[in-house]
Every structure is written in structure tokens, then in C-alpha cells.
Amino acid sequence: MKYRIKALFVCFLVFIIICFPCSILADDTSDTIEPLESIIVSANTSKNVDLEIYSKSAVIYERNSHIVLYEKNSNEVVPMASTTKIMTCILILENCNLDTVVTVSSNAASTIGSRLGLSTNDQITVQDLLYGLMLCSGNDAATCLAETCSGSVEEFAVLMNTKASELGLSSTSFVTPHGLDDDNHFTTAYDYAILTDYALNNPLFKQIVGTKYYTVTLNGSSKQIHNTNELLGSVDGVYGVKTGYTSKAGRCLVSAAVRGNLDIIVVVFGADTKNIRNTDSIKLINYAFSNFEIFDMATLINNKYNEYLSYYLPYTSIDKSFDSLSTYLDEFDTKAYPIKSSDSNTYFASLTTYDLEAPIEKDQVVGVIDVWLNNSKIYSVNIYSSAYIKRKEAVDYLLFFISQYKSFYTL
Questions:
Q1: Ramachandran angles phi, psi of 304, nearest 5°
Q2: Does 82 qualify as catalytic in the annotation?
Q3: Which residue of the set 85, 242, 274, 283 is catalytic?
Q4: Which of 114, 224, 326, 402 is most buried as measured by Cβ atoms within 10 A of its Cβ?
Q5: Residues 202, 208, 212, 213: what is their CA dihedral angle, to the nearest 10 degrees?
Q6: Residue ranges of domains in the chain, CATH in brackets
Q7: Which candidate in 55, 57, 74, 82 is catalytic?
Q8: Residue 385 known to be catalytic
Q9: Catalytic residue check, 85
């Protein structure tokens, strides 16, 4: 009798695995044995540059300067599982009315993997679908949103790849809005840091991924959902972004965290377990905040330009011209720059001016301000002429002589 029960149980498990593959595709598949609190304690890394990171690829990307602070195989092509939904979410925010009430198709309702729990003909708003997409990682919500936006999953993938191209994600390809395994669905840790940085500039995207609990309204009834991102609300400064898991991609996590004026994105792809995914992410977050600080590059450059205006420009002579030089400083994107805490006293700005001879064109470079760190140039900003300065001609010399002659005899 016991043998028959065991045999039936084994058959049942085989049936479940074959017929319901979502059990190996869902973001919330549990393999965590160690409590998150213990992971946070053990992941508090020292200020050691040789981080022991077990995920297949990883990157720390600083948002103010767009500079990589750490990388491991960050340009290696890998599957990204449900972190795919970062792209899905930002495209819906940019292209759809969030108040639109959607009727769920049978195709969306039957999508496998992690689910919001949609059924055919359910009624739900686009906004609630977005929370279901990003908090509980609903693959059914992803399909529903793709169909709502573009008419089909295939057409939505075209939109995804167009956006990827616009953002310069040269090693990224999308096939689905949810990220279930497909050989043509891939990215890199670096590309995904770029995408996430772009998405976080949208206030509603940032609000959604930073929400721990949310109540959706499905067919007029309330349903509470929670965020699968375990670091949110547990690790200091973390304000998003998205988990992911498939059997092929492994455990994935894209995190955003800010402490003081250091704002980072941490991507880990291809971890074997949740423990590793969370430990690696926390290690990288703590490493960034323990080892780096931001210096105010904008003030450094502007102070050097003001020095130029006060002490150099008034005494600048232009060969073969009577006119005075007027200038402006080029615009620059990098206002703040991350440096190692140990290098906080090793940066400075230098000024280079050029010998000038007329004619000088408007917008011609007449000088440059360079920023140096550890005696290596890290940034440059040009100084331009703000007006055309003509070359002296014979008639100009004659008029100058006459004016001088008149001045002499009026004394």
C-alpha cells in the first residue's frame, strides 16, 4: 500500500513538472534557506577591491556620472529573465493611458510562469497591470500589456527592440515582454544598467518599483500584492528595481540604491540561488558606498572659469585685431563625479589658453578647462568665443592712426 502511494506521488510530481512548467519559471520560486537579515550581515564587505562575486555577470553603475565602478563580465551576453519587464514597464508608461480599462485575452490569461492571477475577460486598468507586472512579476500582466499597447506580443517586441536601439543597447535583443527563455532574448549587465538608468528618470516608474505593497482592483474586487524584491525596505538606500528567474537565466536582480549624493545601479545576472543573488547584490551595494564618494565637478569647473574671466580674459590680446574677446563655457553633462574615498584630495582643474590671431570665428575654441584625478585627465570642457572678431585691414590701421593723431592734437 505504501509503495502504491509513493508511486502515485512520484507520478503526480512528474505530471506537474511536465504540464505546469511555471514551477521552474516563476520569480517567486523559493530556494532561500538563509534569512535575509543574516545575508545582510554576512554581505557587509570590507573595503577590499577583490570582491568575491559568484553571479555570472555583474556591474555597479553610477547614475550621476554614468561611470562603471565595478564590473564582472558586464559585456557578456546572457538571458535576463523577468528583469525584461523593466523595458516593458517604461514602454507602457511612455505609450499608454494608465486609466484605460483592459479586457484580458485568453492568450494573456494562459501565460505560464509567475502570475498576477488573470483570467480570460477579467477587467483591470493599465496602471494596476503595471503594478502586477513589476511587484509580483506577472507574466500574464506582461502579455496583456503588450497586446494592449501593440496588438500582439510580436509587435510589442518590435517596439522593445526599437527602444533598445535608441538607447544604444547594442548587445540586447527582446522577443517577449516577460522574459521567459528564448535563444534570441538576451542582454548584458552593462546594457541593463543603461536601460534601468533611463527608466528611473520616469517618476512613475520609480514610484512603482519602489512600492513594497499595492492593492490592485480586478473585476471590481481588491487584491493585495507584494514586491518580490527582498532588498527593498531591508537594505539601506535601496529604492528598486526588479527580480528575475528562469532555469536558463538563473537568479537575476537589478537594484537601485542611493546614500547621500552617490546614486548607483547594481545588476547581477546568473546567480545559482536567491542567497547568492542577494548576497552578491548587497556586497556590491556596500562596496560602492564604502569605497566611493562624489565630488562636485560642476563647482570645480565653474570656479576655474570664473578665475579665467577675472585674471586671464581682461589681459588677453588678439594679434591683428583691435577687438576684445568675449567667451562662454561649453555645457557639460557630468556635474558630479565618483572617486575613491582615498583619492578625495587628488583632484584639481587646470586652464589652458591659446595664442589668438584674428580672424576668430564665433564658437571657436579659445581655451579648455581640464579636470585631473591622480594626475590623469578625466574630463575636459571647452571655452568658446561668443562673437566673431575680424582681422585688421589697411583701412583699420588708417582709421586707428587718424584717431590717435586727433587725440594727440586735442591735448
A1: -70, -35
A2: yes
A3: 85
A4: 114
A5: 160
A6: 50-292 (3.40.710.10), 312-394 (2.60.410)
A7: 82
A8: no
A9: yes
